[in-house]
Amino acid sequence: MLFERLKQQLHEREQAHCYRRRRIMSSPQSIRVCLDGREYLNFCSNDYLGLANHPELIKSFKQAANKYGVGSGSAHLINGHSKEHHALEEELAAFTGRQRALLFSTGYMANLGIVSTLLERGDNLFADRLNHASLIDAGILSRARLQRYAHNDMVALTEKLTQSGKGEKLIVSDGVFSMDGDLAAIEQMASLAVERDAMLMIDDAHGFGVLGKTGAGIVEQAGLDANSVPVLMGTLGKALGSFGAFVAGDEILIEALINRARSYVYTTALPPAVAAATRSSLRLLKKENWRREKLHGLIAYWKQGASQLALPLLPSDTAIQPLLLGASEKAVYLSQQLDEQGFLISAIRPPTVPKNQARLRITLSAEHEQTDIDHLLEALESLLHKEAIVE
Ligand SMILES: *Cc1c(COP(=O)(O)O)cnc(C)c1O
């Protein structure tokens, strides 16, 4: 019986301390949230700039809902493509310095659509081992030969590119790795791509809005452009505090996706009000640099405090600041202890990360203050100290 198998699989997950359960939020996303009826200081959201509950976004959302209603009512290619979607696409193209941009309902769907439109059977996809799950699934869906290389290992990537047979070549990587917080070696990848006649695609879900002089992401930060990174994907549900995703690039790329990306064609368009709220967010991003600057100051403050306590930091300069613990049990235990003290920090376990690399994924937001970080450091210090004694 099929359900017997599910039951067995769930049981195994439970035994491995990897069972996942949802908890119920009854407040907006913010650094102070109410979860399962309790108040927490939040260190686990991707709302890096604190825009998810910003009054300007809410105002635009409401105004657009008054004007356009709630549901878009159909796919973009039927009559679901509203003025708000279109204006947002034009603004995203201008912001990223590209000819065109195309909105997708989620980042997951964008990745499925992009990779499976670009590649077909017989082509080669080169992917970092730590790429986001959606990029892995996208590779499988494309039917291309999937070649995963060791994390950020440009020697390994070069070898795989050299050994690859016929067919088109696409290199794809997270810009900021979602569970590690480190950056892709994007300059090297860009020159390798040119040398080896491959195309480069960057998924900048955690860099867009946060990195670069104007917040346009890792490509801007690296001083690269649309020629060296022809396919740029970004999400709108993280730093932008809204929902959805986009891809930006040349006319030809966007027209091909409109015509052929199945996760674009066969799905209902986002509510126009969501696009309107995102436009507001983009305006704030351009007008107010202080959120990005404050966030980077907080990251430096945290790193200094955490290294003084010799916490097991990973080499990250982004808002994603994981503490590597190893055993899932340990990550879950610490996350629970912190929970009891009112800190919300998620334990990330396999299969989201490799075996024996369970961690606490701490994320910072421009809404935090140094005192919030002080409190967290104090709690971590006494917990780890206590644990050392127990061991
Ligand atoms: C979150 C994330 C996605 C998926 O984006 P959604 O809009 O949440 O579906 C894709 N890629 C990376 C690297 C991500 O972190």
From TrEMBL:
Enzyme's top EC category: transferase
CDD domains given in the database record: KBL_like (cd06454)
GO molecular function: 8-amino-7-oxononanoate synthase activity; pyridoxal phosphate binding
Pathway note: Cofactor biosynthesis; biotin biosynthesis
InterPro entries referenced in this protein's UniProt entry, alphabetically: Aminotrans_II_pyridoxalP_BS (IPR001917), Aminotransferase_I/II_large (IPR004839), AON_synthase_class-II (IPR050087), AONS_Archaea/Proteobacteria (IPR004723), AONS_Proteobacteria (IPR022834), PyrdxlP-dep_Trfase (IPR015424), PyrdxlP-dep_Trfase_major (IPR015421), PyrdxlP-dep_Trfase_small (IPR015422)
Keyword tRNA processing listed: no
Name of a matching Pfam family: Aminotran_1_2
Transmembrane segments: none
Reaction catalyzed: 6-carboxyhexanoyl-[ACP] + L-alanine + H(+) = (8S)-8-amino-7-oxononanoate + holo-[ACP] + CO2
UniProt keyword list: Acyltransferase, Biotin biosynthesis, Pyridoxal phosphate, Transferase
Aminotransferase class I/classII large domain location: 39-380
EC number: 2.3.1.47
Cofactor list: pyridoxal 5'-phosphate
PANTHER family the UniProt entry points to: 8-AMINO-7-OXONONANOATE SYNTHASE (PTHR13693:SF100), CLASS II AMINOTRANSFERASE/8-AMINO-7-OXONONANOATE SYNTHASE (PTHR13693)
Family assignment from sequence similarity: Belongs to the class-II pyridoxal-phosphate-dependent aminotransferase family. BioF subfamily.
Quaternary context: Homodimer.
UniProt name for this protein: 8-amino-7-oxononanoate synthase
Organism the protein comes from: hydrothermal vent metagenome
